[in-house]
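Please think about what follows:
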Amino acid sequence: MAQLPFGYEIVDGVATVTLDRPDRLNALTFDIYRRLADIFYRARFAKEIKAVVITGAGKGFCGGGDVEEIIGSLLQRGSRDVLEFTRMTGELVENIRRLDRPVIAAINGTAAGAGAVIALACDLRVMADSAKIHFLFPKVGLTGADMGAAWLLPRVVGLGRATEWLMLGDGVDAMTAHQSGLVTKVVPGSKVLETAQALAQRLADGPTMAHGMTKRLLNGELSMDFSSAIESEAVAQALMLRAKDHRRFYDAFTAGEEPEFEGD
């Protein structure tokens, strides 16, 4: 594999992606967007990956698109090229959501613009108590509805909060993010990655096929009527009742032992 513009390692089933441009607040370039989208797509087929953590090097999580390398360049391009770029950024978020493994954002510092939406696209978020999340698109003259933010955010925090954050673009502190349900855990900055990886390891050691099914249904049922959702869950659970991990639970339970799941 060619040298990646970010850190990438897999340990005990947990893949950790580390955005690594700390001097630029881990701002994204065209190349990083493309490679991240590809990484999350390929993870669908990587059996060794059971969970994913994404974080940033240095003091920030991700400051969004690089002003010089992306914004300045886009101002010189035609509409077709700009649309190709915005579709690629959406592809990254879609690939995170479509990955049937838990994805955890370790928000070690500022998450702004695209960085905020990447964190939003993850399944769980661990945030430093000193960090802030900025959906700052309106402050730079852009719509707050970018990369799926207007679809995702209301479903996480409600329409009222989402409207406020996506229209005003003000920073959201860790306590507010936690109280609003956007963030799972708030911890000291030095504990963010450790906490996120421990959470990812817990999920990786669990019934990962069942986790993937849960994520699929959480995504799919948002656009279903209730009867369709009930039927989808019945079919999914029938499949899981025949899965080997469920049998492992039963055998361990009857033996008075803890189950050891293998993800099938």
In short: Strands lie at 6-11, 14-19, 51-56, 60-62, 103-107, 110-112, 124-128, 132-134, 171-173, 185-187. Residues 208-254 form a domain with the Lyase 2-enoyl-coa Hydratase; Chain  A, domain 2 fold (CATH 1.10.12). The CA atoms of residues 47 and 166 lie 37 Å apart.
